Amino acid sequence: MDSELFRKYLDPAVLNKISRLDLLAQQIVEGFVTGMHKSPHHGFSIEFAQHREYVPGDDLRHVDWKVFGRSDRYYIKQYEEETNLVACIAVDCSESMRYQADGISKYQYGCVLAACLAHLITHQQDAVGLAMFDQGVAHYMPPASNVSHMAAILGEFDKRAPRGKTDIAATFHDLAERLRKKSMVIVISDFFDDEARVYEGLKHFRHRHHEVVAFHLMDRYELSFPFAKVTKFIGMEEYPDQLLEPRAIRDAYLAEVGEFLKTMRKNCLKIKADYTLLPTDEPLDVALSAYLATRHSARRA
After folding, report:
1. Sign of CA dihedral 196, 200, 205, 209
2. Which of 23, 35, 53, 134 could serve as 94's disulfide partner, Cβ 3.0–4.6 Å?
3. CATH of the structural domain 3-32+84-300, one choice from 1.10.287.1260, 3.40.50.410, 3.40.50.300, 3.20.20.140
């Protein structure tokens, strides 16, 4: 794996905090820990299951060269594997994720969060996929568990920049249908879209029997609105710029944000999805280890 990418997205302090905690799926784990119970997930093991099209990061040892000779296209042989969990991490790369008042942007924070979760999942020998989205699924990597796949995930974070509008509902409807096997869907986003449409998209995952984990990223300035002087607010996702007196709108703004967060939490509760609000100034090792510890306790209760 590229050591520079590893250092950029996989902070040793964060990994040290979470390394002893499994990402336990509360509803969909088929079996116990790897090696203790067989689960019929596709991987690279003994019994052939099917072909799928090659994606960057796949191990070339599993390319079916006979099929390539006939079709001039690369296909990977998939086999049956012992595993517990298939996860897909969906990362919002729309323009609003570019916002940063002080520190790192929501997109940068989200990529580090996604990298740590992907590392944890592959470290426990489970499979993880990636979906980058804005108005739709901009890039999709099917779940896998090898080292080269992890490198490809980090590379995707590094080459992509937040841009474009958001259409979360269309994205989630598409992704829900792509995931054929019951999976843990981990969504990392600011969820800046119509709340009702976001809810319908999340509900589609549950309708397909996927477990949903929502990490709601917000910049601290978006949550507290600390502006005092007349400020020009730069429009994103095709919204116009606005020159405003912050003190005149602070109360209304904070009430609107509070209602937005309340609705998101309530909608996730309705479909039994995990919901975690993460301000981007919160140390990721603290936030993530606290979330995983809470999840671990809930699993044992």
Report:
1. positive
2. 134
3. 3.40.50.410
